[in-house]
Every structure is written in C-alpha cells, then in structure tokens.
Amino acid sequence: MQILLNKTLKPYNSFSVNESADLIIQADSIQDLIDIWSDKKYTDMTKLPLGRGSNTLFCNHFNGVVVLNRLFGKSVTETDTDYLLKISSGEDWPALVEWCVDNGFAGIENLAMIPGCAGSAPIQNIGAYGLELKDICESVEYLDLETLQIKTLKNSECLFGYRESIFKHELKDRCIITAITLRLNKQWQPVLAYGPLSDLRNSKTTPKNVFDKICEIRSKKLPDPNVIGNAGSFFKNPVISEEHYLALCETYPNLPAYDVTEGKKIAAGWLIDNAGLKGFKINGAQVHQEQALVLINTGTATSEDILELANYVKNIVLDMYDIELEHEVRFYLNGEESFLSELFDERTH
Ligand code: FAD
Ligand code: EPU
Known about the structure:
- There is one protein chain.
- The strands form six sheets. The protein has a five-stranded antiparallel β-sheet with strand order 6-7-12-10-11.
- By secondary structure, the chain is α+β, with helices and mostly antiparallel strands.
- The protein folds into three domains: 2-69, Uridine Diphospho-n-acetylenolpyruvylglucosamine Reductase, domain 2 (2-Layer Sandwich); 74-221, Uridine Diphospho-n-acetylenolpyruvylglucosamine Reductase, domain 3 (2-Layer Sandwich); 229-347, Uridine Diphospho-n-acetylenolpyruvylglucosamine Reductase, domain 1, CATH 3.90.78.10.
- The chain has seven helices and 21 strands.
- The protein binds flavin-adenine dinucleotide and uridine-diphosphate-2(N-acetylglucosaminyl) butyric acid.
- Residues 128-129, 221, 232-233, 236-237, 256, 267, 269-270, 273, 291-293, 328 line the site of uridine-diphosphate-2(N-acetylglucosaminyl) butyric acid (EPU).
C-alpha cells in the first residue's frame, strides 16, 4: 500500500481534469483493501475504488479517499474445450487483450483498446464491435465491504445488460472487484457482424487480423486519452419505442437504429452529429470532430466546462428528437455519485 503525497487526481482520470482528493491511496493487494476499509482513520471518510479513471468525471474536489486499484496477476487453466483466465482486477485491459492475442487465447480481440482495468470491465459490461464482456466472462470475484470476505458471482448472477450490471445497482458501493475469470473457447469463432469488419469474413482470418482491424478503426475515430482528455462515449445509445422511431424517420430517414427487445436502439453519435454539434465548444470542452458521442478536453477544460457542454448537448437532443440521453460516464460530486439531471434543473417537456 502506498499513500500518495500528491493529492491531484489529474493523472488518474482520462478526462485529465484538474481536481484533487483528500487522500489518494494505492492498493496493491486484497489485504491492502481490507486494511483500508477496516482502518478506523478512514471509517468516516467516503472511499472510492478507481481503476484507470477512463469512465469517471470528478466534478469537484473529492472529499474522501480515492483508492487506486493496482492488484496485478494472471493465471491460465484449461479444460478440453476452453481456456480459463483468472485476471487480477488491476491488470490493464488493453494490455491484457494484446497479451491474449499474442499468446493464442482468442475470442477477446473485439474488445481491443478499451482503456481501463480488467476489474472495471464487468461494471458496465464493456462492449464494442459485436462483443460484450458478458460473452466471455465466467465469473467475477469481489471483496464484500460489509463482511470483508471474498465472494464470487457467476456470469448469470452479474445481471449483465447493455452498459449495465449488478455492480452499478445492488452491489454499488458494497464491493470491490478483485478478479475476473474469462472463458475463451479453444475453437475460435470470429465475431464479424459489425459492418466494417466484413472484409475479414473469410477462412484465412486470424484473431490478430481482427485485433489489428479493430485497432485501426478505433484509432481513426476515438481520441487517445493520453493525448486528448476524454472518457469514450459520453452518453449511452438510447432505446426508444418503435412508434417514436417511425415518427422520427419521417423527418430523418437516415437515422441509424438497431432492433432490440424493448424497441429500437438509436446511434446517439448520429443524433448529436445531425444536430450540427461536431466541434461545438464550451471553453475547453468540445464535441469531438470525428465521433460526436465523445466529449473532449482540448487541454484547458474544467469539469464545469465538460458538464455544461454535456448538458447543452443533452438539451439539444431532447428538443430536436424528444430523446433523453443518459450519460455513461460516472460523475462524482462532493464525494458522491451524481447525475446530469441532478446537477442541472430537470426541464419539463
Ligand atoms: P474507472 O473510470 O476507474 O471506474 C469506473 C467506475 O467503476 C467508477 O464508478 C469506480 O468507482 C468503479 N470501480 C472501479 N474499479 C472498481 C473495482 N475494482 N470494484 C468496484 N468498483 C470499481 N467502454 C466500452 O464499454 N466500450 C468501448 O468501446 C469504450 N471505449 C472507450 C474509449 C476511450 C478512448 C475511453 C477513454 C473510454 C472508453 N470506454 C469504453 C469506457 C471505459 O474504457 C470503460 O468503462 C472501462 O471499463 C473503465 O475502466 P476504468 O478502470 O478506467 O474505470
Ligand atoms: N455516427 C455519426 N456521427 C458521429 C458518430 C457516429 O453519424 O459523429 C453514426 C455512425 O456513422 C454509425 C453510428 O452512428 O452509423 C454508430 O457509430 P459507431 O459505430 O462509431 O458506434 P457508437 O454507437 O457511436 C458504440 C459504443 C462504443 C463502441 C462502438 C463500437 C456506446 C455508447 N458506444 O459507439 O463504446 O466502441 O459502439 O462498437 O454504446 C464507450 O462505451 O465508451 C464506447 C466508445
């Protein structure tokens, strides 16, 4: 365990906003987590586990302890049909995907280049290019913060959905994920349904080809957080009813939409782009030029600039399409999770 002397959160959030915390502690083991959560010095302080901060916006000073997850280690076992990879939660997800591709563990390559820790992946059930974590997740191990005992949930108990899981609801603030176990089938089945991957639909395609293609697509559209502060898609793709979709199609015949059980999932990036907001700026915060669903810090953005911009985008989308966007990025205000709808007056429509 290491108590950091510098209390700035800037290096620990991918938006690179310049907020601070009362205390930042790096946890290197499960025992460190137990020690921090049972130490009387911290009993009255809010404690927040943080991976790489790639889906987190600190809205102001975090009055509490930010606990950086640096639990490392991985092990592989196998059955006749599958590889089982047990990964400690602090392992870097993009490095893990690359390591799998290089070492013959296929089936994870569509999730290349998603920043963050392996242990954060189940929280919003990370997904990209036709694959979600839930498709390869065997189980999730966590430290129960009430009993300080290790527990394990199998896949079906994690209640995975689109950018959803039990860790955002029933288990929120009640557990720290300590490891995940992935199940990768030895018989590789490439996932190539996503349009731009169609060139790879032939028998010679390898997991490395898919990995390389995904890296190429992502590098073109998504800003590298090491260069330009951002947290990937700021909002989730909204789901609307079939009737609402058909009504919108009368005005917007090119509206991209996908069938889901509850109706139609709409591309929020298209809604924002079609509203003419690409490149729109509020001080240092800007709607990304290549992917309108991504909000960026051009270098000088404060958390307020980003929040103002997010609220502006949300209101334009509501006015134009009668669709209420929900943010994917997790906000922390005064040491507690917060939401755009609480930060700005909810507008009646
Ligand atoms: P953090 O931001 O550190 O934490 C996220 C939340 O989880 C916080 O509430 C935190 O308190 C909590 N938390 C963190 N660790 C633990 C733990 N061990 N136990 C319990 N709670 C914990 N996401 C996708 O799904 N698909 C994409 O394609 C995608 N692309 C992205 C591209 C870019 C350029 C960026 C910057 C982000 C992208 N994201 C994407 C979002 C992000 O990468 C994921 O949400 C990722 O899983 C976040 O990991 P993290 O470790 O940075 O989480
Ligand atoms: N589009 C536009 N203009 C834009 C952006 C998108 O017209 O500025 C259109 C595209 O042309 C396409 C559609 O919107 O027709 C969807 O765009 P894209 O394929 O880029 O994906 P997305 O829906 O914007 C989602 C995820 C990403 C994930 C990609 C790839 C969400 C909220 N986002 O983005 O995840 O990488 O699909 O599967 O579901 C993240 O969660 O942080 C993230 C980056």
